[in-house]
Amino acid sequence: MAKKMGIGLDIGNSSIKLVQVEGGNTITVNKFAIIPMPENCLNNGVINNKAAVIRAIGEAFSQTGITKKKAMLAVAGQAVIVRNIKIPLMPEAEIANAIRWEAERYIPFPADEVEIDYHVINRDEAEQEIELVLVCAHKDIVNSHILTLREAKVQPLSIDIQPFALIRAMGLDSKASASIGILDIGAGTTDLTIIKDGIPRFTRIIPLAGQRLTENISRSLGASFTEAEELKKTLSDAYFELSSEALADPEEFKKYKVNMALQEGLQELVLELRRSFDYYQLQQKNEEVSQLIVAGGGSHIANLIPHLNQELGLAVNLCRPRMDIICSNNKLQEEYETNIPILTVALGLALREVVSE
Predict the structure, then answer these.
(1) Could you tell me if 141 and 77 are in contact, meaning their C-beta atoms sit under 8 angstroms apart?
(2) Is the whole model's pTM more than 0.90, yes or no?
(3) How many CB atoms within 10 Å of residue 346?
(4) pLDDT single digits (tens) 134-148
(5) pLDDT band per the 50, 70, 90 thresholds, residue 245
(6) Interior CA angle at 274 toward 165 and 267, to 5°?
(7) Which of these, 276, 267, 262, 274, lies nearest to 210 by C-alpha position?
(8) Alpha-carbon gap, residue 351 to 48, rounded angstroms
């Protein structure tokens, strides 16, 4: 019996991530690539520089040697909305029609401007209601991805949303009985999802992410965006403290300015997380978030995990994928281990083809 193969393609604000996995008794990562892109290729989830994205997709497939050009996609941005809602109890066949009317109560767009999907969580006969997860994505986002892939000669097999791909990649879709927060710090946005019993109970897009941190550094030092991005990668430290003796050292002072700009952004992120956790606790009748898992390129900031642990007062860990995933050789395993936080969404997308849900 042929093993199932899955390919995940994550089109982010600053890079393309491509992962191929093979199913079986264990799940094997066979190939992956991370291809940088110029800044501002996407605007709030919409691909606005198709040429650059198509080039990066082509390079990812070429670099990995993947010949089957069919992939799972994910969309993100502030025009991608996830809500947990309740509707009156009704037959399954009537839900789809009812959802289009219900959706307008929860989204800031007319229903005909969005793609809508849903997943039923629970049918409560006693309360005569259905609880479900409602997912909406503006058609501009969806269409820009489909058209770009068509021109790149890649067939999109399905379109997911990033938080769901992360949950799948970490194997949390059926195992999380406590409330667990998943924080995906990307280039354009930071996605916060809180799950309980494997079900997303709260999702929020925070408009503060890697690019904003880089812009803060750029303004502080009067450097270009490209220069500031490099400084962020090489000098940033969430625990940085400047001693008075170092003020006279130009290199130490540069590090100080980089990290003061960085910490300004991190303070804002911590504030938004506290507000989100408080709101979740209120909505879920005093249910507290027990831990926070951090993914995305922003998770590579030095000492970010202990910094968030200290500021939020709860367990904070770097994301780890499902334990039953291995790589096809030791060299690939080494590279994979280094890049797991960046590859997690693409991995979760690829798993959609090989894991029963």
Answers:
(1) yes
(2) no
(3) 31
(4) 999 999 999 999 999
(5) low
(6) 95
(7) 262
(8) 28
